Amino acid sequence: MGDIGIKISRKGFDLDDCADHQLVFSSSFPTLMIHSSGTFDFNGVTLDQIVSVHGLGYAPIFMVFITSDQGDGWYSNGDSRLSYPGNSQFFRVDDTDLTFFASEIGGSVSISGRYYIFRRNIEQNFSYTNVDTTETAPNIQENYGIKISKEGYSIDSEDGRDYLIDSSKRQLLIHTQKYQDIVGPAVMTTEHNLGYHPIYLHYIKDVNSDGRWQQYSNADDSYVASFTDRIETTVLLSKRVASIVLKDWGIN
Amino acid sequence: MSNNGIKVSLPGFDVKTATPEQCAIHSGYNNLKVQSVSDDDSPVGYNPASDPGYGTHNILTVEHGLPYTPGCLGFIKMSPVADSFSAPMQFNFGVTTEDIQAIVCYTTSTHFKIDYVRQPGIFPGHQVVGTASGGVSFEIKYYILVEEGS
Fold first, then answer.
1. How much is the pLDDT for B88?
2. What is the CATH number of domain A34-121?
3. Of A198, A251, A188, A252, whose CA–CA distance to A224 is shortest?
4. Distance from A206 to chain B by nearest Cα, in Å?
């Protein structure tokens, strides 16, 4: 395969000298492509509830936003102030479905939420290439760009949800991805060499010994720290863990 | 609707046969996009040194300007823990041996908000980053998404 590809810079940035994270997309980098999305309402539930049957045949990367029982908002990534000592509420995924697991001691759980399931296997390695981290200031004044609307939607729409690609909107680009079986307590190191703290997603498998993956912060069995050249995943027990490192900046 | 569209395959895959998983772009599938991001040079900071006590304490409220409730992501850097930067979602970590302290990011139909929450209790195994109340300060970077969060 020759060195053929396509990339689009974000509005205002020169494609020739911008950093990877200033791109809208590049054919070198996977994106978080949405397989399915929807909402759910669970009232007074305990134990396993199916959120969505995805049928992908692999455990996909997912995100969930949920309401809180104590506030008026929708909380990021399926976590909220629901999680107090004595309670356990996890969103978990396997080869066939996404489930909500509630095992609150002495009661049940009522929540609403929205889920996103992506066309990307959690158990997958992806090595970064063509790392360009030299950030440039926006210096293109002309109103150039590219927009691709979703099927059935007008290219003149002013609603950002109607577009697959809009060069005024950054997409989350996957920089590198790694999974590994850890014999804990131990550390998995995911090198990224970006020179800054990237944002990332992290999953851990089999916390409840049923082969499902869940996002890390719900688990008592691991924690993650980000450095400018690597992500370190500390696992207290023997588990399989996965890190998905994105191109985007976190905090320096 | 006709079978029009666009596919861009990842390196090493033939675009004519590539599955969605083997593509960087596939017009049959939407991608997660970002509406706005906190300033790279001045992340939201918070230092609970004055010990606000138990409860929920709002750190930031900004209008997102969208006619719906968007999704959001939050990322946090804790000081003085050198080079430590925790993951998205709720940040449960015991700053004292008795308390949960958490930074939570969420959206309403009109606003994006960040709260600092302190509650009694601790999750065993969660990362302990300080030894005393007020011993840790935070910087928070947030992403407000184009896609809905409700």
1. 43
2. 2.60.40
3. A188
4. 16
Quick one: B44 and B113 in the same domain?
yes
Residue of chain A nearest B20, judged by CA positions: A119
Q: Which of B8, B13, B100, B108 should be substituted to probe chain A, the one whose Cβ sees the most A Cβ atoms within 10 Å? A: B8
Q: Pick from A69, A121, A118, A111: which is nearest to A90 by CA?
A: A111
- What pTM was computed for the model? 0.89
Percent of chain B with pLDDT over 90: 27
Are residues B80 and B120 located together in one domain of the fold?
yes
Q: Where in chain A is the domain with CATH 2.60.40.10?
A: 174-249
Taking a C-beta distance cutoff of 8 angstroms, is the pair A112, A41 a contact?
A: yes
φ/ψ of B13, rounded to 5, equals -115, 135
Q: From A249, which residue of chain B is nearest by alpha-carbon distance?
A: B40
Tokens of A227: 């450095």
Q: Give B65-84 pLDDT, tens digit per residue.
A: 999 999 988 887 776 655 55
ipTM of predicted complex: 0.89
Query: What CATH homologous superfamily does A174-249 map to?
Result: Immunoglobulins (2.60.40.10)
Pure H helices in chain B:
none
Verify that B45 and B78 share a domain, yes or no. Answer: yes
